[in-house]
Amino acid sequence: MDDIRKLIENWARAVHEGDLAQVTAHHTDDVVMFDVPPPYEGVRGLDAYRATWPGFFEWQRSGAVFDIESLDVVAGADVAFAFALARCADAGDTSPVRLRLTFGLTKTEGEWRIAHEHHSFPSEPTDETV
User: Fold this and answer.
1) Which of 110, 100, 103, 108 is nearest to 29 (CA)?
2) In the chain, where are the structural domains located?
3) What pTM was computed for the model?
4) How many CB atoms lie within 10 A of CB 48?
5) Closest CA to 117 of 94, 93, 101
């Protein structure tokens, strides 16, 4: 499980640094990601996954933060999942809201690869949901 934890921590560091090569280094070619912004049906495949990052990196360069605050990993012999909470906010934002991250991983040729990512923020309650 330590190798999965290190893989995800390195992924998060690469996200924070805007290093696309390292963000994608340990993903499967058929990765599926459900993200906060559209497309809401998700993106499928490594090329589509890569294409989602430039706008986020631009936002990061404005001084935004992206830091994992908690990470839990559950692993079997060749399948694993991990879930995390991350601070993902504009510089100076003190909101307690955290980005929720879920990863599905597979072991291929002895190496863990991320096959699925899900990113979400909790919805804000409205008068209809209270």
Assistant:
1) 108
2) 2-120
3) 0.90
4) 14
5) 101
User: What are 38's two structure tokens?
Assistant: 């559209």
Percent of the chain with pLDDT over 70: 95
Burial of 69 (C-beta count, 10 Å sphere; 0-12/13-18/19+): exposed
Among residues 11, 17, 39, 21, the alpha carbon closest in space to that of 113 is found at: 11
Burial class (CB in 10 A: 0-12, 13-18, 19+), 49: buried
Instruction: State the pLDDT at residue 37.
Output: 86
Residue 128 has pLDDT above 80, yes or no: no
CA pair distance 23, 32, nearest whole angstrom: 14
Strand-pairing partners, residue 66, are 88
What CATH number does the domain located at 2-120 have? 3.10.450.50
Contact 16, 9 (CB under 8 A): no
